[in-house]
Design brief:
Number of domains: 2
GO molecular function, one term: glucan endo-1,3-beta-D-glucosidase activity
CATH superfamily of the largest domain: Glycosidases
CATH class of the largest domain: Alpha Beta
Strand content: 5-15%
Family: Belongs to the glycosyl hydrolase 17 family.
EC number: 3.2.1.39
GO biological process, one term: defense response
Structural class: alpha/beta
Subcellular location: Cell membrane
Length: 510
């Protein structure tokens, strides 16, 4: 299972504010989050990760420890963090209150509230560990809660613990969901703790594993939210079209069987790998994109589950990056939405409206219409500055035209400068909707925003420059997932012309 995972939420609001990674507020109270695991030796520094997260308007993030560098990197970003107490710390936390107090004083309080911390997960899938961590988790949770109460944060930061579906002895049919009796010694006090403190029961769900291990019993479409048939629970008559709902309801029924009907469920990990070993044929980018897109749509629509229609459900997608140091089969290292170089593994639509095809726009009835990408006037200055920094840096946009004394410097404001940078990235990356997203801060227009000597690029005229002496640098790294040096203008224009004539478009990262 995943030893280091993270979560992000993506949602939008009617007033055009930022997408909340993890949940869409304008549709329901649910959130969709993303996990930031760090079991790798090639990941960007935390400050670069914070820039990436801000660019894509990820508003909810889960980390698996309380790393000081990470906490500092997300200060004043608006991103809400779920931090973790690793299993290795459970003994110390459970034995002495002073250990929990010191941890809170040294790790959390120096960064709070600049860094928004909303949850503390004490222990990770303790029933899967082999070091008797289950007996330690509830005492550790109590001591963390007491530490929070001492500083008056117990109502602002919720304490819980994340579990695998293995905590259930039965999960099908959903109405027969039951907790494993071998965990009863710590389950009852833990559930009492959650109910008393209005904390959620956190569960890690992976339909992928169920399908991988039982492909003859479970259809791929059922695991991917694409089944046209229904599975009927013989005890309740409830109809299930996807495994995710069935697993959630199995947990609800298990909770109800113990008379814990008020505890809400939160999915702290779920996702699909984009690559696997030869025996893991379902681990593909297409399936990962399909699962996560359908999952987001399902959560945003606010439909709930058959047993809990309309029930809010917070979900965190695993994970932000591929992690090259994770042990096990090939799939374990390929759950990320992004490669370590911050390019997208596949296109993922966080709005719940569906996947945007980035590979072929030739059949689009509006494909001959020229469009430009500009910055939204409602975007905050912080978000615009972060987007400009990314576009002019990792996005490989030539931003010399918006420097002092250059043609696009005036008017000297963030909206104008961001519009130029957004459009350059948009045109260099296929002029697709995703390439103009910038986390909801970009907007396409069909009126040329060029003015005076400030010329905005177009996809057809991408070999033209924004000024007479600057050449736009296309982000060729997205073709090979590797970094490239500055390419001479003549060669670049020749390459672009060749690619366009062959019918290809550049891919844009989310």
């Amino acid at each position: 299972m995943h030893d280091i995972r993270c979560i992000v939420s993506a949602c939008g609001s009617l007033d055009n504010s930022l997408y909340r990674v993890g949940v869409v507020d304008f549709c329901s109270g649910s959130i969709v989050g993303v996990c930031y695991g760090r079991n790798a030796d090639d990941l960007p520094t935390p400050d670069k990760v914070a820039q990436l997260v801000k660019l894509h308007n990820i508003k909810y993030l889960r980390i698996y420890d309380s790393n000081i560098q990470v906490l500092k990197a997300f200060a004043n970003t608006g991103v809400e963090l779920m931090v973790g107490v690793p299993n290795s710390d459970l003994l110390a936390f459970s034995q002495f209150q002073s250990n929990a107090d010191s941890w809170l004083k040294n790790n959390i309080l120096p960064n709070y509230p600049a860094t928004k911390i909303t949850y503390i997960t004490v222990g990770l899938e303790v029933t899967e560990s082999h070091d008797n961590a289950s007996a330690l988790v509830v005492p550790a949770m109590h001591n963390v809660l007491i530490a929070l109460k001492k500083v008056g944060l117990h109502k602002r930061i919720k304490v819980s613990s994340a579990h695998s579906l293995g905590i259930l002895s039965r999960s099908f049919p959903p109405s027969a969901g039951a907790f494993n009796s071998s965990h009863a010694f710590f389950l009852k006090p833990m559930l009492e703790f959650l109910a008393e403190n209005q904390s959620p029961f956190m569960i890690d769900l992976y339909p992928y594993y169920a399908f991988r291990d039982s492909p003859k019993k479970i259809s791929l479409d059922y695991a991917l939210f694409q089944s046209s048939s229904e599975v009927i629970d013989p005890n309740t008559g409830l109809l299930y079209t996807n495994m995710f709902d069935a697993q959630i309801d199995a947990l609800y029924f298990a909770l109800m069987a113990l008379n814990f009907k008020t505890i809400k469920v939160m999915v702290t990990e779920t996702g699909w790998p984009s690559k696997g070993s030869p025996k893991e044929r379902a681990a593909t980018p297409d399936n990962a994109q399909t699962y996560n897109t359908n999952l987001i749509r399902h959560v945003i629509n606010g439909t709930g589950t058959p047993a809990k229609p309309g029930e809010e459900l917070d979900v965190y997608i695993f994970s932000l990056f591929n992690e090259n140091r994770k042990p096990g089969l090939e799939s374990e290292r390929n759950w990320g939405l992004f490669y370590p170089d911050k390019t997208s593994v596949y296109n993922l639509d966080f709005t719940g409206k569906g996947v945007i095809d980035m590979t072929n726009r030739s059949n689009d009835t509006n494909s001959n219409r020229t469009t430009w990408c500009i910055a939204s006037s409602k975007a905050s200055e912080l978000d615009l500055q972060s987007a400009i920094d990314w576009a002019c840096g990792p996005g490989n946009v030539d931003c010399s035209a918006i420097q002092p004394s250059q043609p696009c410097f005036e008017p000297d404001n963030l909206v104008s400068h961001a519009s130029f940078a957004f459009n350059s990235y948009y045109q260099q990356n296929g002029a697709t909707d995703v390439a103009c997203s910038f986390g909801g801060n970009g907007a396409t227009v069909d009126k040329d925003p060029s003015y005076d000597n400030c010329i905005y690029l177009t996809a057809r005229g991408i070999n033209k420059t924004a000024t007479s002496n600057t050449t736009a640098l296309a982000d060729a790294s997205r073709l090979e997932r590797s970094e490239c040096s500055w390419i001479p203008g003549f060669f670049l224009m020749t390459l672009i012309s060749f690619i366009i004539n062959r019918g290809y478009v550049f891919g844009a990262s989310l």
